[in-house]
Design goal:
Keywords: Oxidoreductase, Thiamine pyrophosphate. This is 2-oxoisovalerate dehydrogenase subunit beta. Its cofactor is thiamine diphosphate. One of its GO terms (molecular function) is magnesium ion binding. With 325 residues, this protein is of the alpha/beta class. Helices cover 35% and strands 21% of the residues. The protein contains twelve helices and 14 strands. The protein has helices at 7-21, 45-49, 61-73, 92-99, 102-105, 135-139, 152-164, 213-225, 244-254, 269-280, 305-308, 312-323, and strands at residues 2-6, 25-29, 54-56, 77-81, 115-120, 145-147, 169-174, 181-185, 197-200, 205-209, 231-235, 238-240, 257-264, 290-294. The chain has a seven-stranded mixed beta sheet, sandwiched between helices. A five-stranded mixed beta sheet has the order 9-11-10-13-14, sandwiched between helices. Strand 13 (257-264), helix 10 and strand 14 form a beta-alpha-beta unit. Helix 9 (244-254) packs across helix 10. The longest helix is centred in the N-terminal third of the chain and has 15 residues, at 7-21. The radius of gyration is 19 Å and the shape is globular.
Length: 325
């Protein structure tokens, strides 16, 4: 049953399946209906399921999330789209003070099965507020699950799992990978939502990444192999919770770790990984955990984003520095 499809199409097919199988699933957001989303991720869904289940909302992110919370309280499973990463902040209050805390406040009696879809990251030459990577802000908040697929298969199955979750899931979609194609087995048994996956075996160093940077790390590993270096690539898939057991197992084998993400290095998710793995693997590490990411600066204009984002050379430089210890 495997089909080759782009990541955007895989998410569309996953939403379609959820809408077909559960009448309580709703899709909401700005331009998700008639337009099919600015990236066409929701294309055709309103036509097939109607305006009462695929809902074009006003341009009001706080209202979108607030409405989703009310719908969840009534037994629905809303999937809401924030059109671009930088637009999520008007809804930040609703997400972190209401959505994330309802379960705890009610001592587990109230479920919050809400998925917040956020296209994120750079690499597409977009204008200001369209290329942010704010995942660490949400990972810091207890009560939220934060995930990011790196390929079409994970995009399909992780969306299924996110919708089925009784806890809120922030689902970050790497927009630069929307058009990357991969095999999607529609009858597969997926890995657990928060389980990291080794996507390339190696022995000399571990590259850990998620979302848009996994493909880059695979390219880095291929380039390093030409120089006789064996790099393991670990797709974290989930930012909260993090699969520290998988990272530890890889680091105990390779004894070196470089964490790569688009978000700024300063207080990014790589900082938590570096601290925790240093604690867990102190006697295994042969070099300090290194991090490669964006700079601690506002995201630049599109003509400069290639200077801001991690690239092959910056990651290879970190690999060389680690191997030099």
């Amino acid at each position: 049953m495997a089909e080759k499809m782009a990541m955007a199409k895989a998410i569309n097919e996953s939403l379609r399946r959820a809408l077909e199988e559960d009448p309580k699933v709703l899709v909401m957001g700005e331009d998700v209906g008639k337009l099919g989303g600015v990236f066409r991720v929701t294309d055709g869904l309103q036509k097939d399921f109607g305006e009462s289940r695929v809902i074009d909302t006003p341009l009001a992110e706080s209202g979108i999330v607030g409405t989703a919370i009310g719908l969840a309280l009534r037994g629905y499973r809303p999937v809401v789209e924030i059109q671009f990463d930088g637009f999520v902040f008007p809804a930040y209050d609703q997400i972190v003070t209401q959505l994330a805390k309802m379960h705890a406040r009610s001592l587990g009696k109230v479920k919050m099965p809400v998925v917040v879809r956020i296209p994120y990251g750079g690499g597409i030459g977009a204008v200001e507020h369209h290329s942010e990577s704010p995942e660490a802000l949400f990972a810091h908040v207890a009560g939220l699950k934060v995930v990011s697929p790196s390929n079409a298969s994970d995009a399909y199955w992780m969306m299924q799992q996110a919708i089925q979750s009784d806890d809120p899931v922030i689902y970050f979609e790497p927009k630069r990978r929307y058009w990357d194609k991969g095999e999607v087995d529609l009858e597969a048994i997926p890995a657990p939502l928060h389980k990291a996956q080794v996507v390339r075996e190696g022995t000399d160093l571990t590259l850990a990444a998620y979302g848009p940077m996994v493909k880059l790390c695979q390219e880095v590993a291929a380039a390093a192999a030409e120089e006789g270096k064996s790099l393991e690539v670990l797709d974290l898939r989930s930012v909260s919770p993090l699969d520290f057991d998988a990272i530890q197992a890889s680091v105990e084998k390779t004894r070196r770790l470089v964490v790569v993400h688009e978000a700024p290095v300063f207080l990014g998710s790589g900082a938590e990984i570096a601290a925790r793995i240093t604690e867990r693997c102190f006697y295994h590490l042969e070099a300090p955990v290194l991090r490669v990411g964006g700079y601690h600066a506002p995201y630049p204009p599109a003509r400069l984003e290639e200077e801001y984002l991690p690239d092959l050379d910056r990651v290879l430089d970190a690999v060389d520095r680690s191997l030099a210890y």
